Amino acid sequence: MDLTQIRKRIDRIDSEFSRLFVERLEVSKDVAEYKRATGKPIYDRTRERENIAAASNRVPPEYASYAAVIQSVLMEASREAQHKALGRRSDTAQRIGQALESSPAFFPLRPRVACQGVEGAYQQIACDRMFRHPSIDFHPTFEGVLESVECGEADFGVLPIENSTAGSVNHVYDLMMRHEFYIVRSCRLKIDHNLLVRPGTTKEDVRIVYSHQQAINQCADYLATIPNCRVHVCENTARAAQMVSESDRDDVAALASRSCAELYGLHIAEQSVQDNQNNYTRFACIARDLTIYPGAERSSLMVVVNHEPGALYNVLARFYALDINLVKLESRPIANRDFEFMFYFDIECPAAAPEFGVLMDSLDDVCEQWRYLGSYTEVV
């Protein structure tokens, strides 16, 4: 038998498999009608577990894991067919649909926005990038920003969530798990740290450097070139510049933005001192109420899966089946649960796309719990 004949045989098998696959999904609609009449839930964990085990046992041991995966995909397709047949939608999917229907025509221009820090902080720069004429209220902590949005004092809040070299801002991720809000826009901002000093001070005079911990980490190699330098951590880079401007010492400096030099009357002793010149931070703009503005093509989710083999795979398989691009996957430990994790996802898919609605309808079946954090556009 030559290769052409072998391939024809495979094609016949694939064709028969496709015919049986469609037949199976049609039968799933009958299952849906029965469940409608009896009030039974679509997802039957025991039935699926038994089916997957049976599929593994029907084939030789060397094929058992593949059979389990195929059966799992078949069961998933069957659940989706039943959801469509019954027209059932998750609460989250319904709220997203309502938000899309009432979507504002454009992003606000002059809102009241909460930021952490003081004038000149990178959060303020990101805020100005996202809004044309914002009224900014500054808070000493990230939690203060979230509380201001939650109680309605501010329309929006701006928070850093990820840096291209230092990774995620873990404290903000932890706060995400405790506060209710939605991301309505994000911004990717190039971070350019400069050594700022009082007029007349040179790099050779510097013995003390103030900055935020992230900036200090991002300039570690550069700081090593300043002899006998002591580093002091403060709440943000703009506050560091403010402290230097208010100091009466001539041996202090700050790692901060160029705008801070102009704002606080400081001199740039050396510019762009970060170790990695390709240094970007993502900032999230958050709101209390779910609003999806036109053009939203990125969404964020928090997911907790069952602590068992294949649980995360079942979630990832949905992204693959729906052709949804996963652009970020971050794990965070769950408080008071030993070695169990919450997963944070960023995905690329228009919020109005049918496949996004399908995803929102199907996550209840494979997650212990999950939370939709919003759909938005990212400003670059």
Report the sheet with the most strands, covering strand number, pairing sense and barrel closure: 10 strands, mixed
Rg, rounded, reads 27 Å
- Please give the number of β-strands: 15
Judged by helices, strands and strand pairing, the structural class is: alpha/beta
Helix content bin: 40-55%
Q: Uncertain spans, ≥5 residues at pLDDT below 50?
A: none
Apparent shape: elongated
Explained architecture:
Strand 1 (112-116), helix 5 and strand 2 form a beta-alpha-beta unit. The chain is an alpha/beta fold. The model has no long low-confidence stretch (mean pLDDT 90). The chain is elongated and about 85 Å long. The chain is 41% helix and 24% strand. Strands 1, 2, 3, 4, 5, 11, 12, 13, 14 and 15 form a 10-stranded mixed beta sheet that branches. The chain has a 5-stranded mixed beta sheet with strand order 8-7-9-6-10.
Secondary structure elements and pairings:
Elements: H1 3-38, H2 45-57, H3 64-86, H4 91-101, E1 112-116, H5 122-130, E2 135-139, H6 142-150, E3 156-163, E4 167-168, H7 170-176, E5 182-190, E6 194-197, E7 208-211, H8 213-218, H9 220-223, E8 230-233, H10 237-246, E9 252-256, H11 258-264, E10 267-270, E11 280-287, E12 298-304, H12 311-321, E13 325-333, E14 341-348, H13 354-362, E15 369-379
Parallel strand pairs: 1-2, 1-3, 5-15, 7-8, 7-9
Antiparallel strand pairs: 3-4, 3-11, 5-11, 6-9, 6-10, 12-14, 12-15, 13-14
